[in-house]
């Protein structure tokens, strides 16, 4: 595993340098925005609700991804994950009176998000977690707090320009992901890897023709390697990222939606975006409207 | 399990690829492992040591690391085996991914095959080799005509274990671009989070069937070629 760890360190160093470079340019983006932690949060909530319990214990466990620059990334030597998803987590925790450093972060991968919520391993999942009907059968999903779409990451000198060009080519993504199914439907040969970083390596070494997943993630990788990689094709799917919670605590949905709506109105949502995904050069989009919560 | 039954062709294709990986790397491992065993017991000291180093190296390295080496390090060094896609065997093109997975599995499994085979060679009474030499056989002749056939009969049970391990080890390829059974299972659970347990059972049963077929055929072969004592 030496090899992978070295790469992770290199990637982290790259990210740190990129962030430092932004600071040098007199741009104050890149720094994690400060969130205002609510005082006496416990008084705000009704007795017996999950929020009351969190606020009183001062503890919350949030599942995020560790291998998606811009969305959720944690290098081997970092203390805390960085990215848009952790920022959303901080906003939610702050409303409970929990400071960012008191949040317990736990790495989730695509496969274990539902089991982690069902077994109480984590209290919230904020891990590029697309809202789907099937998932809503087993866990709660509040949101969306961000809408993105699938795109392609190719080598800078690649001939792939449109979605039609992928037919017959080899395209990688994460094993078992929806992105892989979608690109298969376009006629490409799907190549699943365990992590996005392994998939990027395949594009860099020329073993596969392209990588596909949500545009937000691809932009993060392209920003790390601007000379060798580029993002092509307009988004051809719609992924609506939601916050996962346990169906045992249905009252959390209203709270998540209210807190995030407030963050959108107050501009903390914009700050979180600009400091994370915004670093790859995309403009801060209009925040999406939230779904209604199911009647508890 | 509805999700599995409604796309059963995908389920079968996934196990087809699993079996394809098993058969190709199984045959390759048996051939390469036997050659290694012959080298290890052979009279040439340098080949002897080379085979011993090979076994030590690949038997002591986790399979996942060999996969990482073949799939991630070798392409960076310029060996991506894309050239195999140029060959056509009976109208069927081997993909470089399939080739690389078989290579990784074979490198690993042949070390175990070699050791199983060597224990079989040791089980053949020394008199057999001496008898072969007495009637003027060369090393190659006494190996191929006298010792290996007897060794092969003796090692069927341990060799079956090696092959069963290989059948299950093909699942490592799931994380390296091959849509075999385990990778397909993860695709199914991602799309149908509400049927997780059923999907898991369906794929577990598939693996059990594959392994049972291997152990049953080994049992039949063993009964057929058993040495009467």
UniProtKB/TrEMBL annotation, chain A:
Superkingdom to which the source organism belongs: Bacteria
Protein keywords: Signal, Transport
SUPFAM superfamilies: Periplasmic binding protein-like II
Classification via InterPro entries: Bact_solute-bind_prot3, Solute-binding_3/MltF_N
Residue ranges annotated for the Solute-binding protein family 3/N-terminal domain, each copy included: 59-280
Pfam families (alphabetical): SBP_bac_3
Signal peptide positions (record): 1-23
Family according to the record: Belongs to the bacterial solute-binding protein 3 family.
Protein name: Glutamate ABC transporter substrate-binding protein
Organism, as annotated: Nocardioides renjunii
């Amino acid at each position: 595993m030496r090899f992978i760890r070295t790469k992770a360190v290199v990637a982290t160093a790259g990210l740190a340098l990129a962030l430092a470079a932004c600071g040098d340019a007199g741009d104050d983006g890149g720094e994690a925005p400060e969130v205002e932690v609510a005082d006496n949060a416990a008084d705000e909530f009704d007795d017996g609700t999950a929020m009351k319990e969190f606020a009183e214990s001062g503890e919350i466990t949030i599942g995020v991804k560790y291998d998606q620059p811009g969305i959720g990334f944690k290098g081997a030597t970092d203390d805390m994950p960085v990215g848009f998803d952790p920022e959303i987590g901080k906003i939610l925790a702050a409303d409970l009176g929990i400071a960012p450093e008191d949040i317990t972060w736990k790495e989730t991968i695509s496969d274990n998000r539902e089991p982690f919520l069902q077994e109480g391993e984590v209290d919230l999942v904020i891990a590029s977690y697309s809202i789907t009907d099937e998932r809503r059968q087993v866990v709660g999903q509040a949101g969306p707090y961000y809408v993105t779409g699938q795109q392609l990451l190719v080598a800078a000198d690649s001939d792939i320009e449109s979605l039609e060009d992928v037919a017959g080519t080899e395209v990688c993504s994460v094993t078992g992901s929806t992105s892989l199914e979608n690109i298969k439907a376009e006629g490409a040969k799907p190549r699943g890897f365990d992590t996005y970083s392994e998939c990027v390596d395949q594009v860099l070494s020329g073993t596969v023709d392209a990588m596909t997943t949500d545009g937000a993630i691809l932009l993060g990788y392209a920003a790390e390697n601007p000379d060798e990689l580029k993002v092509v094709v307009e988004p051809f799917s719609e992924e609506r990222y939601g916050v996962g919670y346990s169906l045992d605590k249905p009252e959390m949905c209203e709270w998540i939606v209210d807190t995030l709506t407030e963050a959108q109105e107050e501009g903390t949502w914009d700050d979180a975006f600009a400091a994370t995904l915004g670093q790859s050069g995309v403009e801060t989009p209009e925040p999406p409207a939230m779904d209604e919560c199911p009647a508890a | 399990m509805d999700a599995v039954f409604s796309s059963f062709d995908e389920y079968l294709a996934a196990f087809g690829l699993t079996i394809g990986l098993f058969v190709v790397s199984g045959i390759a491992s048996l051939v390469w492992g036997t050659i290694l065993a012959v080298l290890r017991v052979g009279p040439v000291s340098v080949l002897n040591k080379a085979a011993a180093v090979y076994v030590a190296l690949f038997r002591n390295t986790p399979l996942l690391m060999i996969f990482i080496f073949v799939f991630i390090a070798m392409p960076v060094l310029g060996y991506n085996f894309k050239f195999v896609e140029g060959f056509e065997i009976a109208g069927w093109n081997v993909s470089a991914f399939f080739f690389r997975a078989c290579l990784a599995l074979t490198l690993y499994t042949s070390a175990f095959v070699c050791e199983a085979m060597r224990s079989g060679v040791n089980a053949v009474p020394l008199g057999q080799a001496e008898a072969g030499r007495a009637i003027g056989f060369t090393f190659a002749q006494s190996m191929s005509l006298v010792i290996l056939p007897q060794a092969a009969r003796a090692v069927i049970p341990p060799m079956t274990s090696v092959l069963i391990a290989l059948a299950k080890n093909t699942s490592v390829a799931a994380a390296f671009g091959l849509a075999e059974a385990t990778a397909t299972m993860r695709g199914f659970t991602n799309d149908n989070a509400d049927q997780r347990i059923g999907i898991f059972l369906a794929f577990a049963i598939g693996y059990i069937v594959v392994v049972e077929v291997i152990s049953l055929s080994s049992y039949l072969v063993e009964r057929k070629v058993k040495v009467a004592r």
